[in-house]
Amino acid sequence: MVEHLSLASSTRSSREFKSPEKELQGQRTPSHIPVLAATPPRFMAAPSPGLGVSPSPRSSISRSLSRSVSPSKQSFFLTKDSNVRTEQWDYESRFQTIESQFQNMAKKVDNTISEKEGLQESINQFKNKISELESIRLQLTTNNTRLQSELDECRGKFTSASLALEECRRAHSFEADDLRRKHRNTTEDLRDEHRRELEKMKKENDNAADKSRKDFETEVEKLIKLHQNELDELQRKLKVEVAEEKSKRAQEFDELQKQWASKLHGVDIDLDAKEREAQKVRGELSIITTDLERERLIKGSLQEKLSEAAGNNIALETANREMKAKIDFLESDNQAQSNSFAELHRRMQEAIESAAQANEKLRVEETLRRKLHNQVQELKGNIRVFCRVRPTLASSEIEPANIAYPDCETDSKEVAVRGPEQRTALGNVTTSNNSFSFDRVFGPTSQNAEVFEEISQLVQSALDGYNVCIFCYGQTGSGKTYTMSSPDGMIPRAVQQIYAEATRLEEKGWKYRMDGSFVEVYNENINDLLGKSEDLDKKKLEIRHDTAKKQTIITDVTTVELDGPDRVDEMLKRASNNRSVAATKANERSSRSHSVFILKLVGVNSITGERSEGTLNLVDLAGSERLAHSQAQGERLKETQSINKSLSCLGDVINALGSAKENAHIPYRNSKLTYLLQYSLGGNSKTLMFVMVSPDQAHLQETITSLKFATKVHNTHIGTAKKQTKTKD
Ligand SMILES: Nc1ncnc2c1ncn2[C@@H]1O[C@H](COP(=O)(O)OP(=O)(O)OP(=O)(O)O)[C@@H](O)[C@H]1O
């Protein structure tokens, strides 16, 4: 290290150090350029003796300096071409400076020389060390060579071992491959066999399932067809028989009446004719009598002519006799007429009797009709679901949703709704197609009359002694109130039909009493919509159940006897007024509460002694929109929560009814609505749900939710309904 440093410094010195002669030669410039010539040489370090520099630098430097310095002071031009004069440099002082620098330099050289000696010593030490190290290195090299040979030997061994191992591995791998191949072949064989076995089993299974399904289906179809045919046949026969019987009886009756009337008419005419003849005869008789009298008078005067007139008299007497015979004949003809009248009377009595028999037969047939009607209703299922899509409102400029009616030309049971657009992870836009199927789907062009036609059979059932519940489900603005309570909605039409039917049944001995009440379930409270408006939300109405009679009673509720179809309009108006008083906006209250129109129908047949009690519940449910979607707060939040609760309870009850075994718990008590409808939902009742649908794209999500809820209800099967008919003791 030290050696290296000294070498570097000596190199630098050789580069920087110039001999004073050379220096002075370089300064041998024209005398008028003193600046360059006067630059003193720089002594950075002493030159190394090993590099061929003069061993006595100090003497050579002083020599050159003494040669170059001239003490005289002269004036020079600044440059060769300049005429500016400058004074000659002060060589004395410069010489002194250089002398002192030289001294310093000489000192440094001495130091360096002593340093060099120290370094030389160190170099010698290092050389010794190097030779020592060299001997160690030689030893190590010998060791290394030995180890290398050992290592080579080991490597040779390792290579042979590796080769042996590789050989072994290869052999093992071949073996493993063989085994694997064998195993794979065996597995594949087994798998093939297993697949074949499975396919065979599956085929057998499928065939068996197909066969049994087909058998079952054909059996079911056969049974249904048979039943349907029987039913159709029965109905057809019944209709034909009734029509035939009716027309026969009517014909007979008409004929009899006609015969009787024509006979009576003939008899009357005959009687008149006979009367006229008798009158005529009587008139002739009186004429003859007068004649006779005159003749008798004349006889006296014509005594003489008596003999002449005797012949005349005999002739007259003969004529008189003839006349009498004629009168007798006429009188005997009158008797025949009386006899035929009596005969006619008897036949008329017979006709009346057979008409009474026909009426009796009709009554029996009416009972049979009811039975068949309810059999048909039961076959259709005790809970039915109809879907109605309202038309797009003229005022709305909202985009319509994509709703299709695939079988509108045939069954009208399906509705397909295109779901909202969804973006996949890859960024593609997709839409789902949601298809729903119900007992009947009414499109936007359907009218209330058409809808009512489908439910009129259920209304008939209420008259026949069943509990019927028809409710409308759907979001706000989907058309529930329009369907239920508009002037030509289901409520007025149902009442009209019931009234017309009750009047028709009067001839068959039935007398009905109809009592209507109208209540509202608002925030889990029952309000009387026919009571005073100021009592709304204040008066507490309670629901009581008569478990023995299976009847629901609402305490203090207003009940109106519907003695004519017009009364229902009054009721609806009153209810609507009460609701609009309670709400700030007219439509607000109806959207936020459930309204229940209850019609109790009690019928008594004075001829057969039968009694029937049925209830028709027409329910307009509150808007079904979800809590998150409505973003309700405060009072509204409470309303929405209670609506959602009661609607979900309704779903739970229907679900429980569908899945429950006999006597299982049905959670009617979980909400006021289901508790109120306890005897009109399930076992002894017939239920119809309308799911109302808005056609707007903005309501699409709610529409799909409503249709899904309705599908659940539609898939529920509720047990057979029972008629509440009692016979007189
Ligand atoms: N089938 C239809 N034909 C014509 N207009 C209809 C039909 N259905 C509903 N509408 C109209 O749509 C609007 C909303 O209907 P409606 O008030 O019956 O809805 P809703 O579901 O009962 O609402 P809410 O829950 O607020 O009571 C009304 O203006 C109604 O006249």
Explain what the structure shows.
Belongs to the TRAFAC class myosin-kinesin ATPase superfamily. Kinesin family. KIN-14 subfamily. Pfam families: Kinesin (PF00225). This is Kinesin-like protein. It comes from Lophium mytilinum. It is found in: Cytoplasm, Cytoskeleton. There is one protein chain. This protein is an alpha+beta fold. The protein folds into 3 domains: about 1-135, no CATH class; about 230-365, Helix Hairpins (Orthogonal Bundle), CATH 1.10.287; about 380-420 and about 430-725, Kinesin motor domain (Kinesin). It contains 15 helices and 17 strands. The strands form 4 sheets. Strands 3, 7, 8, 9, 10, 13, 14, 15, 16 and 17 form a 10-stranded mixed β-sheet that branches. The protein has a 3-stranded antiparallel β-sheet with strand order 4-5-6, with helices on one face. A two-stranded antiparallel ribbon has the order 1-2. Strand 1 and strand 2 form a beta hairpin. Helix 7 packs across helix 9 (about 490-505). It is elongated and about 240 Å long. It binds adenosine-5'-triphosphate (ATP). Adenosine-5'-triphosphate binds near residues 480 and 482. The site of adenosine-5'-triphosphate has 16 residues, from helix 8 and helix 11.
Main traits of this protein?
single chain, 729 residues, alpha+beta, Helix Hairpins, Kinesin, 3 domains, 10-stranded mixed beta sheet, 3-stranded antiparallel beta sheet, 15% strand, disordered N terminus, binds adenosine-5'-triphosphate
